[in-house]
Specification:
Helix content: 10-25%
Radius of gyration: 21 Å
Strand order of the largest sheet: 1-3-5-2
Order of helices and strands: EEEHEHEHEEEEHEEHE
Number of strands: 12
Shape: globular
Distance between the termini: 48 Å
Number of domains: 2
Strand content: 25-35%
Length: 292
């Protein structure tokens, strides 16, 4: 039986935020230099959070506009989380590096140069430049054959389980609250179903109105290896998965189902172990920065 980690290592361990600031007399940002290798933050402050009980900046995200362009970037979390954002490669596909890039929390605030559009591509390019300049980072991307889990239908008729339902979710604009899917308005689940929401904890995962691939992304943090969606289930779904992190099997000493058992019983899916090609980020060098 597969051993389950005590808790999911989820992206909730980190917080990213973009703070909207209006520059007096600022013009609308132009797309010039978009995604270019020369993009750098104008000014950046980096501090190690030494008090484990303290918290960093509140997690706030606000889209920019011509009238109020996003002018500052902030991060409160691990460096692995920052690498995940910059390279779009999850923790479990980052290899090498010292323990502190996973365990320590850094508070980073930086100014986006005036005239640079605050797109995700531009910001990620500036994060990479910051890591090279201040952390002396050297990384490379390559493909390796590694152990993976494959997410598949558990039944031959591909029928989903009771806690996995198609979601008829309307388009939701940024900032709008999540809503109950119209076709599931009468379904009462503990944390769902909700359109446009994803939440997880030590013993549950709730996904609202997203493809099954988003479930695979959430699962890989707790399983410690990549999870590939091969369910073939189209469209968006709402799901609620509850399990006992320390349970090795259904009805074990902990009194609840393991993650593997819960996936099969509640979602009508299953996980199979195999090896497959994985895009990884290899960290050859990274040093603690000088704080300022």
């Amino acid at each position: 039986m597969n051993r389950i980690p005590v808790s999911l290592r989820i992206a909730l361990a980190s917080a990213f935020l973009l703070v909207t600031v209006a520059r007096p007399g600022a013009q609308a940002p132009s797309p010039g230099r978009a995604g270019g290798a020369d993009l750098k933050f104008e000014v950046a402050s980096i501090k190690l959070l030494r008090d484990p009980g303290a918290s960093g900046p509140a997690a706030v995200a606000a889209p920019g506009s011509a009238a109020r362009p996003v002018s500052r970037f902030s991060h409160a979390g691990s460096i692995r989380a920052l690498l995940q954002r910059a390279y779009q490669i999850p923790y479990v596909q980052q290899l090498g590096g010292p323990d502190w890039i996973r365990e320590d929390t850094y508070i980073i605030t930086a100014t986006i140069p005036e005239g640079v559009e605050s797109t995700a591509a531009n910001i990620n390019a500036m994060i990479k430049a910051l890591l090279v300049d201040r952390f002396q980072m050297v990384v490379r991307q390559e493909e390796r054959e590694l152990p993976i889990y494959v997410l598949l239908p558990a039944r031959q008729d591909r029928k989903p389980g009771p806690k996995l339902q198609p979601a008829n979710c309307p388009t939701r604009e940024p900032g709008q609250p999540s809503t109950v899917p119209p076709n599931l308005a009468g379904v009462a689940w503990e944390r769902g179903p909700r359109c446009g929401g994803i939440s997880s904890g030590s013993n549950f995962i709730s996904v609202g109105g997203f493809p099954i691939a988003r479930l695979a992304e959430q699962l890989q943090f707790g399983l410690g290896r990549p999870v590939v969606d091969r369910t073939g289930l189209p469209g968006n779904y709402v799901l609620e998965l509850t399990y006992e992190p320390q349970a090795m099997s259904a009805g074990g000493d902990s009194g609840g189902p393991s993650l593997f058992t819960a996936i099969q019983e509640q979602l009508g899916l299953k996980l199979e172990s195999e090896r497959g090609p994985v895009n990884v980020l290899v960290i050859d060098r990274i040093e603690r920065p000088t704080e300022n």
